[in-house]
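Pasting as-is:
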Amino acid sequence: MLAGAPTGFAAHGLQLADINEDGKPDIIMIDSRQNAFVTLIGNGRGGFSQGPTATFAAGQGRYAIAFGDLDGDGHLDAAIASGGAGELAEPGRLLALRGDGKGAFKKGSETAVPQSPRYVTLGDVDGDGRADIVITHSDNLVSVLLNRGADKFAPAPASPYNAGGLAWAVVVADVNRDKQNDLVLATENSVTVLLNGKSGLTRAVGSPFAAGPGAYYLAIGDVNQDGEPDVVASSFDGKAVTVLLHR
């Protein structure tokens, strides 16, 4: 089935999430012209119908979006990072939109972040049970905003961190099995691992790990079924997929 977005829509991102909590995946797309994201509600049989549209204040340059329960009410919320690049660009910003569990969103908090965000994801970085926000930026930076509750977010100590390369996608996961979530980043021609510890996030021994050219996205899973997390990275500019086995 071909499902259409509104006339004049300029797609700047695509996500699948069950925003109306009916157990069926929905489609969410950012409209960079109208400063909104539109939703297509899935019927579970491959069909979609127009859903609610959520607007947000205009930003600059790139947009990146992620969904998760930010306020602990059991409903999916949205984290939208935006910002341009260059000397004349304004600082980036993060908008938190609160979901009502029926497919609609209302404005939450706004937090300043570094310029030119590329990718945003959610995960519990500090181990307090709340979803924190991780954003990669075009100048080798990765920022971590800790969820303080009551719709407030604050940079983690020493954030933003230097990823050591052009950071794109990031995954929050406990890769060294110490019960603290770490950051695994696709850094263009490599994979960078920042381990979480008492002194904050520090680069793992051997990191960055070589990957195919154009490693912009990655995923984590147990590829060889040994019970340990492995990393698979894309190679957009090459013809291979990089698989890094946990040792």
